[in-house]
Fold:
Amino acid sequence: MSRLNWGMIGGGEGSQIGPAHRLGAGLDGEFTFAAGALDHRADEGRAYGQRLGLAADRAYGGWREMLEGESARPDRVDLVTVATPNATHFEITKAFLTAGFHVLCEKPMTMTVEEGEEIVRIARDTGQICAVNYGYTGYSLVRHMRAMVARGDLGRIRLVVAEFAHGHHADAADADNPRVRWRYDPAQAGVSAQFADCGIHAMHMASFVTGQEVERLSADTVSCIDSRVLEDDAMVNFRMSEGTVGRLWTSSVAIGRQHGLTLQVFGEKGGLRWAQEQPNQLYHMPLGQRLQVIERGEAGLSPEADRTTRVTIGHAEGMPLAFANIYKDLAEAIRARKEGRAMDPAADLYPRAEDGLRSMAAVFAVATSGKAEGAWTDARPPMFR
Ligand code: NAI
Structure:
């Protein structure tokens, strides 16, 4: 079975998310890192690509050059990851899908709902895979939560409580730092800052685990630091497609919190709690019984959890391995297509363009509701209403 070729746009030297993608894509020996346009500066991108082992003619100076170069090769990349700043995702993803490449796009997939709908249509029309990197859904125990909910361990799900609250933009003295300021400036960040950056991860995870879509929401958005136009804190109430009630808190001024993504699910027969900073334990509270701690890698978990665990129980697995599970799903999806067979259902869990679009609709609904004193607002994209 030959390896698949993988390419990356963005993720240059010193970038935040580039290394996690390279670790994730490289873990299982499915993908060879074959091409890249890694930096907005052509020479730096070419040089860094070669230092990472790319051949000189595939360490490109820009994404258009990469599109042209790869399109002309018989061994063109099988998958392209787009890990550039948000405002460029739409144009790059659209161009590669249209040219017949499978794409894994970083979140948020687009800047507008209309762009999101266009990406969904292009992915459907071309038949290319368009995945979106809600990478935290790759964690083994997040997959297990989903499986437990789907098989009815908790009964009907009454309530889901999601948080993604950190404190890394809490220093008012740092608010003018250009690396922070652009995030709260509508001209550069769009209609939302903290919800679009972090809240959508938490909301997507609530949907992923419950198997339900968010239908409507009410948001309280605030800028705790006065000089900011966009929100640095939001509390969002929502309702899901099968009646589950959702509560979501996201913040960037929660001093002392590091990452802060957590999910709690409460059903008729029990509750679950999982936190990204301790991803190897899942807390299960069955009704009327004692708290149980489920360990990643233990015997008797779901096939979805077994498939996504790599090291034995008691050894910590972390975020790059969660990303690796998205890449593992994608490798299986690409191979199934090449071989003309159905894919392993336990692998068919990678987030799709449709999920990226739903997030964009939620971002706009949060911005609209926040400006209207929390008025309940339809959170579905027009094409799914
Ligand atoms: P960053 O600013 O640290 O790095 C961006 C990289 O992209 C740099 O190397 C830059 O030179 C390169 N770049 C910029 N424009 C380019 C272009 N036109 N062509 C090629 N390269 C270009 O940004 P960061 O934090 O790594 O974020 C990148 C994306 O990943 C964002 O969309 C962000 O929302 C997302 N992200 C996702 C996370 C997740 O958990 N899924 C976590 C962190 C970021």
User: Anything to note?
Assistant: The pocket of NAI is lined by residues 9-12, 15-18, 37-40, 63, 83-86, 88, 106-107, 133, 135 (CB under 6 Å). Residues 319-339 form the longest helix (21 residues). The radius of gyration is 20 Å. Residues 149 and 210 are 6 Å apart (CA to CA).
